[in-house]
Amino acid sequence: MKTPNKSRRLAQPVQQVTVDAGLLPKAPGKGRGTAADRPATATVNIVAPVHPGAKAMRQRMKQQAMNSALTRIGAAIESGEMPPAEAKRLVLGRVVKGLGSVEAAEKWYRSQHLSEFGGRTPAQLVRAGQLKMLLEHINTMSAAKT
Questions:
Q1: Which of 19, 88, 124, 144: disulfide with 120, CB 3.0–4.6 Å?
Q2: Rounded CA gap, 145 and 76, in Å?
């Protein structure tokens, strides 16, 4: 039975080979059996590398998905319709590198009073729907540091 809207995997050649079982890693969680309990050989599947054309197609698909997501996020920012939780993640993602840690970024988000916005914190700006202005401020501040 085929699932609708499900992408297919491109076929890759598989070859089964028999190897000495002692060469394979031990399975976790299994007891320490004696040598007589373990088989002497094991069958292993060897998968051929992905064809360069298939690899390039997958890369293009990932890039298209990323561009689509960025367009969707940009439209949500422009219209002011981004949910506060997503807006918070976006803001924290932008400032975490400059502040050094997620904890520092979270503290900045909750308690840093920005004089450019009347002393309001970034959290207050996001809740007020002024995400676009806050992101522009973060961009100008990071550009000034470099």
A1: 124
A2: 28
- Is the full-model pTM beyond 0.70? no
Q: Which residues share a beta bridge with 114?
A: 120
Residue 77 identity (one-letter amino acid): I
State the CB neighbour count (10 A cutoff) for residue 132.
16
Rounded to whole angstroms, how far apart are CA atoms 123 and 93?
A: 14
Closest by alpha carbon to 21, among 3, 7, 5, 37?
37
What are 71's two structure tokens?
A: 């367009």
Q: What is the pLDDT of residues 19-30, one digit of tens each?
A: 888 887 877 765
